[in-house]
Write a structure and sequence with these properties.
Elements (H helix, E strand, L loop, with lengths): L1 E4 L11 H13 L5 E3 L5 E4 L7 H21 L1
Length: 75
């Protein structure tokens, strides 16, 4: 399992909970299943199978990158 923590400000580390949920929902619409997690629901949790092919992993991360970028621009 791996996670990406989203924060609103790098200095204060204020959790970006709403934005994380939005990114997770957008990833789902694009075919990638991830979950929000963490104490403040600001971590995108990923648990790919151990036998995943590199091409599949790269594709999934590319798809996930798009909603995270969108959230980053709007936050």
């Amino acid at each position: 399992m791996a996670g990406i923590e989203l924060v609103k400000d790098k200095k204060s580390k204020k959790p970006a909970s709403k934005e994380t949920v939005e990114a997770v929902q957008e990833a789902y619409k694009r075919g990638v299943l991830v979950n929000p997690g963490g104490t403040f629901e600001n971590v995108i949790r990923m648990a790919p199978p151990l036998v995943i092919a590199k091409e599949q992993l790269d594709r999934g991360l590319d798809i996930l990158d798009e909603p995270v970028d969108t959230v980053e621009r709007t936050a």
